[in-house]
Amino acid sequence: MIPRYFYIAVSVLLLAVLSMSVYAWRMRGRAAASPVASVDIRPVVAPVAGPTEQVTLFVAYDDVGVLHAQAAQIPLPSVRQQRAEELLRALLALYLDKASPHPLPPGSDIRSVYMVDPGLAVIDINAAFADGHRSGVLEEELTVASLIQTLAANIPGILRVKILVEGKQRETLAGHADLSNFFDVSAVHQLTAQLQSAQ
Questions:
Q1: What are the extents of the domains in the chain?
Q2: HSE-CB of 3 using CA atoms within 13 angstroms
Q3: Residue 35 in 3-state DSSP?
Q4: Helices assigned H by DSSP within 34-182
Q5: Can you tell me the distance from the alpha carbon of 69 to that of 48, in angstroms, rounded to the nearest whole number?
Q6: Percent of the chain with pLDDT over 90
Q7: Which residue in 63, 101, 108, 191 could disulfide with 129, CB within 3.0 to 4.6 Å?
Q8: How far is CA 138 from the centre of its chain?
Q9: What angle do CA 180, 182, 188 make, to 5 degrees?
């Protein structure tokens, strides 16, 4: 004969298991119903040491297909290469904002800007920038022109620009903008002026 306390113990354990199952099921429902917070996956950049200066950023506007010069105050270091990197990162910060007129994919960043000789700048973008970029002639051309115009307007003496992805040459940005050649700054400036006059 099985003792009575054994039946009571088994009944209490079954009730506890059933209660825990109901509790877990309710918690799972609440977790599924609660909104998921978006995670900022942009890389963390070390703070810039240098005085705050007024610069001109050439911001792309997709809705009208033009670049507009926009003044900004950003801290800039004295070294030419680091100045170039901070200029382009300030531009990307505008594009990564929720209210961006020219959205770029999350995680887009400038890996580095190399000043190869007095007239040549090489912009090295990360894979997230290129791989997630929207495909389209206008969108891609605006991105390239925006980077080049911003550099040329704030760093004197840049005549040509090359764009790399993760330190390697790539044929196009996202299928249209040709990255295989060097960009002539004066030609990009003329293109920008034509886009603005066509409005």
A1: 1-37, 52-197
A2: 3
A3: coil
A4: 80-95, 127-131, 137-154
A5: 23
A6: 33
A7: 108
A8: 18
A9: 115
- pLDDT tens-digit series, residues 24-33: 888 887 777 7
Q: Residues 142-191: pLDDT tens digits?
A: 899 999 999 999 998 999 999 999 989 888 787 777 788 899 999 988 88
Q: Six-digit token pair at 108?
A: 């887009």
Question: What is the edge-to-edge ordering of all strands in the sheet holding 183-184?
Answer: 110-117, 120-125, 160-165, 183-184
CA contacts within 13 A on the Cβ side of 83: 22
Token reading at 174: 């996202």
Q: Which two tokens stand for residue 8?
A: 């009571």
| Buried/exposed code over 101-128 (b: 16+ C-beta within 10 A; e: otherwise) | bbbbbebbbbbbbebeeeeebbbbbbeb
User: CB-based contacts of 196: which residues, under 8 Å, 6+ apart?
Assistant: 66, 67
The size of the chain, in residues, is: 199
CA angle 108, 135, 111 (to 5 degrees): 20
In one-letter notation, the amino acid at residue 188 is: V
**How many whole angstroms separate alpha carbon 183 and alpha carbon 148?**
8
Q: How confident is the model over 62-75, as pLDDT tens digits?
A: 888 888 889 999 99
Which tokens go with 192?
């920008």
Which has more confidence, 182 or 47?
182
CA 76 to chain CA centroid, nearest Å: 20
Rg (CA), the chain: 27
